[in-house]
Specification:
Elements lengths: L2 H7 L20 E5 L2 E5 L1 H23 L1
Antiparallel strand pairs: 1-2
């Protein structure tokens, strides 16, 4: 692989990695890397993931308090 192919392979896509909708940075969402894997999350999928993580953290906090 040449340098350009490697850069292309590690560039986050312009479609959401979950729902395949077009990514619009002005709407929100995020592009980056999950470990080495390039990912893109639209505003809806990103907010859903954050909500899921918050619920999970709250459940663990409740267990710790008992």
């Amino acid at each position: 692989m040449n340098k350009e192919e490697i850069e292309k392979a590690f560039t986050p896509p312009d479609k959401c990695s979950i729902c395949d909708s077009e990514y619009d940075p002005e709407e929100g969402g995020v592009q980056g890397h999950f470990g080495m894997m390039p990912v893109t999350f639209c505003v809806w999928c990103y907010s859903s993931m954050l909500d899921m993580a918050e619920q999970d953290l709250n459940m663990h906090n409740m267990e710790d308090e008992e």
